[in-house]
Design a protein that fits this description.
This protein has one helix at residues 2-39; strands at 45-50, 55-60, 65-71, 76-81, 87-92, 101-106, 111-117, 124-130, 133-138, 143-148, 153-159, 165-170, 176-181, 186-191, 209-211, 216-221, 227-232, 237-242, 247-253, 259-264, 270-275, 280-285, 290-296, 301-306, 312-317, 322-327, 332-337, 343-349. It contains one helix and 28 strands. The termini are far apart. By secondary structure, the chain is mostly beta strands.
């Protein structure tokens, strides 16, 4: 009998120890979750797309540490974040530009909340928010479309003819959309309020378009709104367009092998051009229109994001699966960080 009582006591002690261990494990997990909850969605935040892994990656810009990875649709190329910072809209370009969906990401929840089917394969690419709506190019569909997150519908579209409209940007007052057309060697401009082609003719520029260099890709509007710069991937030039007259007023030979993106700094003093072919970032003085510096970053330099305070630029070095950080005061690379395979499009959450 004593042996049985001793065995019962030992079993009871073992069970008690097991339960204490389980309670301790749960407490540790809860503590970890609490810590994670404090850092899981920084504000501000940098979001970066990994094309090969079909992911949106959230990065804390203060520490350059990866915070989360969110699956998207196939082969995402570009991303835009709403002004309130609640959602990101991702264009899922797909294989060979035959994608047909958008991914809507809840950034606080870190998950895709909508997969928007655009119907036929349209190759959604460049995207930008304006007045709460996400406007995007649809290359294969020859359209510029507008998505309304509140209704989860594509509610408006602009036919663009036969060209391959790649990237888009809004004028500073939001009245005009400018878009690069890779195949037609032109920058198109559209009335964003009416959704029709701007029919104004200016100095032979034509109806709704301005002829530029070969294969324009990157595009941006100067902070003062007076100029539109287009980086031409086919001939190593940058075309500078007078935004009022809608005509090219200068063509700068920046000697790129394949210009990919172009971004102004917030003060308008510098323009950054990424060279997919050489792996360089070209820094230009916007006033003199001359090269200030050429930074070799690695293989296949693509997307550029300039931090809103103008202190840093983040540049996707897609061929090396990393993002380079450039100090815009010293024009030096201060570091790199990994976000997945083939990073490209980026956006900032305020």
């Amino acid at each position: 009998m004593g042996g049985l009582q001793g065995m019962d006591r030992r079993i009871g002690e073992a069970e008690l120890a097991r339960r204490k261990m389980a309670v301790g494990l749960v407490a540790s997990l809860l503590a970890m979750c609490g810590t994670w909850a404090q850092v899981k969605m920084p504000r501000p935040a940098l979001v970066v797309l990994s094309k090969d892994e079909s992911l949106l990656v959230i990065v804390d810009p203060a520490t350059l540490k990866l915070v989360a990875k969110v699956p998207t649709g196939p082969i995402p190329h570009e991303v835009a974040v709403s002004v309130d910072g609640k959602i990101a809209v991702v264009t899922n370009y797909g294989a060979d530009g035959k994608g047909r969906t958008l991914s809507v990401i809840d950034l606080d929840a870190q998950r895709e909340v909508q997969r928007v089917d655009l119907g036929a394969p349209v190759g959604p690419h460049g995207v930008a928010f304006f007045q709460g709506k996400a406007w995007f190019t649809a290359e294969a569909g020859h359209l510029i479309e507008r998505y309304n997150p509140e209704t989860n519908r594509v509610e408006r579209w602009i036919p663009i003819g036969r060209g391959r409209t790649h990237m888009l940007v809004f004028s500073r007052d939001g009245s005009t959309i400018y878009a690069t057309d890779l195949e037609q060697d032109q920058v198109s401009y559209w009335n964003a309020q009416e959704g029709a082609v701007n029919q104004t003719k200016a100095d032979g520029a034509g109806d709704g378009w301005v002829a530029v260099g070969k294969g324009p890709e990157g595009i941006d509007v100067s902070p003062d709104g007076k100029e539109v710069w287009a980086a031409n991937s086919g001939d190593g030039t940058v075309s500078i367009i007078d935004a009022g007259k809608k005509k090219v007023i200068a063509t700068i030979d920046v000697k790129t092998k394949r210009s990919n993106r172009l971004k102004f700094t917030p003060d308008g003093k510098l323009a950054l051009v990424s060279d997919l072919g050489s792996g360089d970032l070209i820094v230009m003085d916007a006033a003199t229109r001359k090269e200030v510096k050429r930074l070799p970053l690695g293989k296949s330099v693509e997307g550029i994001l300039v931090q809103p305070d103008g202190t840093r630029a983040f540049v996707a070095v897609s061929g090396d699966d990393k993002v380079a950080v450039v100090d815009l005061k010293t024009l030096q690379v201060t570091g790199t960080f990994a976000v997945g395979k083939d990073p490209d499009g980026m956006a900032w959450r305020r």
